[in-house]
Amino acid sequence: MKNLGLLGLLALAGCVDLKSAYPEKRFYTIEAPRSGPARTGPEGTVLRVRRFSASRLFEGSELVHRNADSEYESDFYSVFFVPPAAQVGEQAQRWLGQSKVFATVVGTGSSAAETHVLEGNLVALYGDRRGPKAPLAVLEVQFMVVGLSSDPAAVLLQKSYREEIGIPKDDAESLVRGWTQGLSKVLGALEEDLSRIDRSARK
Fold first, then answer.
1. For site-directed labelling of 98, which of 39, 68, 104, 173 has its Cα 20 to 30 A away?
2. What is the pLDDT of residues 119-130, one digit of tens each?
3. In the CATH scheme, what is the homologous superfamily, with its name and number, of domain 24-202?
C-alpha cells in the first residue's frame, strides 16, 4: 500500500507544469537615442571607440540591486540581452557618431586609421533600494580620450560621469528605463565636454 501511495504521489507530481511554477526570464537592452542637430568636428579626425570594460560586480548579464551599503543581489529572471558594458560602448559609439564632435567615429572592427581613441569603463549599474529617495537607477561610466597625433600620445579627457535617476517602481522595466535616461544624460555631458576641447587638440 505504501508503494502504491508513493507511486500515486509521483504520478501527480508528473502532472504539475513546472514551467508555470517559475517566472520566465525577461531580456532587456539599454538604448540612448540622440536628438538635436549635429556639430561640426575637425575634418580628418577619426575617433575609435574601444571595447568597454566593466567592474567585476557589474560585468554579468543579470540586473543588480543594492539593498544595503555592503549588500547586493542579482535578479536571475531579469537579464541583459547583451552584456551591459558592450551595450554602453555601442550606444556611446552611436551617440558620438551622430554628434559629429569628431568627423568620423568607428569601432574596433574598422580598418580606418584613428587619430583619437575613446576608452570606457562601466563603474556602476544597479538599482538602489536604500534611503528615502529609493528606488534609484544608478549608472556611472568612466571615459578616457587619447589623442594620437602627438608624441607621446596625450590624454585629452579623463572623467567619470554618474547619474542617479528616481524611478516610480522597484521593478526591472522601471529600472532599465531609468538607466536609459541616465545614459542619455551621461553621453550628452560627454559630448559637451569633448566639444570644449581645443580644436587643435582634436586634429
1. 173
2. 999 999 999 999
3. ABC-type transport auxiliary lipoprotein component (3.40.50.10610)
